[in-house]
Structure formats: C-alpha cells, structure tokens
Amino acid sequence: MAQIKIIVNGKECFGEAGKTILAIAAENGIEIPNLCYNKQLKVYGACGLCVVEVEKVPKLLRACATVATDGMVVTTNSPRVVQARKIALELLMSDHEGDCKGPCHLGCPAHTDVQGYVKQIALGNDREAVRIIKDKIPLPASVGRVCPHPCEEDCRRQFVEQPLSIAYLKAFAADNDMASANPFKPAVAAANGKKVGIVGGGPAGLNAAYQLAVKGYAVTVFDMMPEMGGMLRYGIPEYRLPKAVLAAEVASIEKLGVTMINDIKVGTDVTLEKLREQFDAILVAVGAWKSTGIGCEGDKLEGVLGGIDMLREVNLGGRPDLGKNVAVVGGGNVAMDACRTAVRLGAENVYVIYRRTRAEAPAEDLEIEEALEEGVTFKWLTNPAEIIGENGKVTQIKLQVMELGEPDASGRRRPIEIPGSEFILDVDTVIMSLGTNPNPLIRSTTPGLETNRKGCLIVNENEMTTRDGVFAGGDAVTGAATVILAMGAGKKGAAAIDRFIKGE
Question: Dihedral angle at the C-alpha atoms of 29, 33, 39, 40, nearest 10 degrees?
C-alpha cells in the first residue's frame, strides 16, 4: 500500500493511503478526541468531537470519516476546533443521563441501580442483587411489596410488551437472601466515636440509621410506637406487607449495632433539645401521622375516622366496628388500603368517594382494580357536602356531584360542583383519607424550630433545620409522600450529617 505524508499540528505524519486523518494521527502518536469511533464498526461520525481544520478547506471535517490525502495540512487544536468540540459536547451532555443511565435508575427516587440488581437476579445471584439494592435501600423485601414503582413507569421494556416487575423482583431477591444460610450483611467501618440520634423509626429514619451505622457512627433510633417501622408497620395492612417480613429487615439493621428505643415520645418524655446535648447530630424523621379533615359540616361526629388512624388501630391488633356501610373519602393509596381493610372488617357496602375521575386518582391502578374485585363501589366525581348524624353519631353522608373544569395548580382539571345534584348515602362510618400532616408535638416543644404553613419542618440545602445540628427528612419535611421517597430522604439526611460532623 502506498505511503502518504500529512502534516498534523506541524508534525510530519506518515501512513497508508486510504486511511483516515484519525487513524494516521493515532499511528503517529497524536490523539484526536472522539466518542463514537470504534474500529470494529462502520464509521458513523455522530459525536462531532473529532473535528479538525484542514488547510484550504472552509468547513471543519470529522477526522474519523475523512480520508487523508498526501500533503494535507491538519490542525487539531485551533480555537475554532476547540469551540466546535465544546458545543458538540454540550449538546451531548444536555440529555446524556438518558443514555448513560437507564430511565428506571433515573426514575427511582432513591436512585437504586435497577439495571445492576435486575441483571444479578437474572444470573441467579440474589445475594449480589441485595448488596446492590442495600446501598440505597436497607428494607428491600418490604419496599419491594409496597413501592408505587415509578421505575416501572419509565421502563423501556414497555415499548416492546410491558415493563419489568422491578419492585417484585426486588422483594423476590430479598426474600431469597433472608431465607439463605448466609444473608447479606454490609461491611461496617470501625467506630469513629461520634453519636447520632434519630427521632422516628419509619422508612427515612431506618435508612439513615443503616447508612450511618455502616460508616461507623453510634446510632440510636427513638420511636413513639411499640415497634419500629413507622408507616410500614402501622399504616400498611398485613395483606400487603406481612409484619414478619418487616420485623426481620428491621432486625438486620439493629444487628449493625443500631440501638432502638421504642415507646418514647420526643417532646414529652424527652425534649429534642436534651437529645441534642447527648448526640453530635440529630435527624428528625417523624413522618406525617395527623389525618387531614374533610372540612364539611358534621366532620366531628362520632364515626368520622382518619384513614391512618383506622389503619394504625388495626395494625395494633384492634378490630374497630365500622358498621355495615362505610364511606372512604379520597383517591390515594391510603384510601385503597382503608376501603379494602373495611371489607376485611366485615363491612357490607364500602364506597370510595373521590371528587375527580379514575384517571386523576393518585392511587395505583392495580390497587383500584383489586378494590373493585373485592366489591368496593367507587363514586367518581362526587364530594362530601355534609355528614349527617343522629345523637352525635354518623348516619348519612350528603354527596355533591362534580364535573371537571380547567386545570388547577396541580395540573389536574379542577372539580366544579353541579348545582342541584346532591344525593344521600346511608353510612355508619366515614373514613377520611385526604392526606396527612406532621404531628405538631416536636415543633411545639422545640424553640427555634421553624415550619411552613402545613407544619412541615423547614430545611436548607444541607437538610438542616433552623436549629444547628438538627436535620430532618422524609414526610416531616415534604408532607405525606411515598415510602421510596422517604427512603431517598433518609440517605440524603445521613450523608448531610456525615458531612456536618466531619466539618465538610
């Protein structure tokens, strides 16, 4: 093959005729940046990073796709070339995450490596899958059962057939690992002599405890309930999350050296200020347990219950007498848990009252379908106008028929009353499942701890409240959200505390 000579950045370079500028430059020790070039593949020239200037050629040329000619004079680092590469790289980076990370990974609020653990499950390596999951989520068997799985909504498999069952795969691997002779246990760093107190033993608090314990901190978790787990333990019914599964995963965190103290109310039994004196940092992760009221006449009658309050009573072993006819107001997952629990408690007629349509309901579609299969009646586009009672006890609920108008601040179409459309339902119990707010106990007993108008703790960009060394995360900051969001908040809070104590 004939030899040719080209000049690259003032250096004489020799190569075979028919080769590209990129190839000859590389053979002569001159690197031209590139991303898409692969000698085993047909040249595509997509990235635009390998552009060069060639003397007497007005436009920039892509070195990977331009065949060199004898005597060609090439410049690879002129200001014009550098600027063009910068623009090309900025364009690539503008949506690079969609290419570099799977949409399932990006869609997970805890940013778990979905692709990583799904691959390990496919290979039969459940222990390795759990290791990957527990980097972000220390309760995979529990979370896998109740997560609303936003990752699946973004799964590219849906363009072929249907999304992978990512959440159930997580639970599958975790169940197998727990049942094995040698369940996964993370390596724990040597004790660093620092102590962290966590107020609240729910998803956010437990994840923070796990992350900090692994880093060598002495962690103590305080919770007002008899057992750890928060909403996982007391807000989700047994049929969705067996409590033995949750208990086993909580025990695995305790085995890392985490001290867990139950039946203690921070704010009355001990103040947050007192705990701050005992620990190098505090994380407040008390969740949002206070039910939001309906706000109509009669909502204080006997027989009007909060959805979370009812579920907590059942999870504590109680069997509240709801009567034969039960109305559940709300369209979220708590409403679905409440109506299906009411069926299990013996109610004959269970109604879900929601002011928008099924399409706008925040509950998972699977939860709605299962409620329908269990005989629950849905009253879409209806809203409570009045709760009616006799002798202080609920007997009926007056419902207002609605229609959808223009979108409101939430982006959903605003429900509008239809005049003269009211109707009556006979009910024995009305269950309010319209959301929850944080309990006011801690903020009311801690001077200088600021909250917003909804009672949620205010934190800065470092997850710290308005009290030095006191951090917060989860529903106590955001208001009622999902378990997976709380898990993500717990990890963020732990990282923030780690930086604070290290003085970073």
Answer: 140
d(CA 456, CA 472): 10
C-alpha angle 397/351/373, rounded to 5°? 175
pLDDT in tens, 211-245: 999 999 999 999 999 999 999 999 999 999 999 99
Its sign, for the CA torsion 464, 142, 376, 361, is positive
> Which of 161, 120, 172, 166 minimizes the C-alpha distance to 147?
166
- Sign of the Cα torsion 73, 77, 83, 89 reads positive
Here the tokens at position 283 are: 């994380």
The class that CATH gives domain 101-179 is mainly alpha
* Rounded (10°) angle between helices 166-179 and 126-134: 110
**Best CA proximity match to 166, nearest among 184, 145, 188:** 145
Q: Residues 256-296: pLDDT tens digits?
A: 999 999 999 999 999 999 999 999 999 999 999 888 888 89
**CATH code that applies to domain 291-436:** 3.50.50.60
Quick one: fold of 195-289+439-502? FAD/NAD(P)-binding domain (3.50.50)
